[in-house]
Amino acid sequence: MNSAVIFGATGTGKRVFSEVKEKYNVLYFIDEDPSLTGKDNYGVPIYEVKHVLSERPDVVIMGKLTGLDESVEFLIENGFDEYRIITNYVDLPIRARMSCLKNISVLITRWGGGMRRTWRLPGRFRKSYKRYIS
Q: Alpha-carbon distance 23 to 6, whole Å?
């Protein structure tokens, strides 16, 4: 079983862990948030990002949505081959999120009248949608 590190220790990283824990030997999580360093997810330790530079796993599995491209670039710049960086567990959610936001912006444009009028339309974009769009 290949050794792996999950880049991202919050919600997305935890979801990715649940998907890969039977396929890979997950050694640890890494995260840019210093408040997470020293903690663990499901008994798997969380380290700062530079830890992955000294202890090279077989693969790094991306478990983050925000800053994904920058994190992949960081790994490549520090000697990780692209084929050892797995992004397919987060690529689909990113594409789905972008598609959803694009569709919402098209609907808002079609309705016209700006955001205030949009929120008054019955049953349209309530609660959490409003929080993410505004």
A: 13
Half-sphere exposure of 23 (CA within 13 A, CB side): 12
Q: Which two tokens stand for residue 80?
A: 């990780």
Rounded to the nearest 10°, the torsion over CA 95, 101, 102, 107 is: 150
> How are the residues of the chain apportioned to helix, strand and coil, as percentages rounded to the nearest 5?
50, 20, 30
* Residue carrying structure tokens 């903690």: 39
Number of neighbours of residue 55 by Cβ within 10 angstroms: 11
Task: Select from 58, 86, 56, 57 the least CA-distant residue to 71.
Answer: 86
Q: What is the pLDDT of residues 70-110, one digit of tens each?
A: 999 999 999 999 999 998 887 665 666 666 777 777 777 77
Q: Please say whether the beta carbons of 92 and 105 come within 8 A.
A: no
* SS3 category, 29: strand
- What's the pLDDT score for residue 119? 47
Nearest to 5, CA basis, from 75, 69, 95: 75
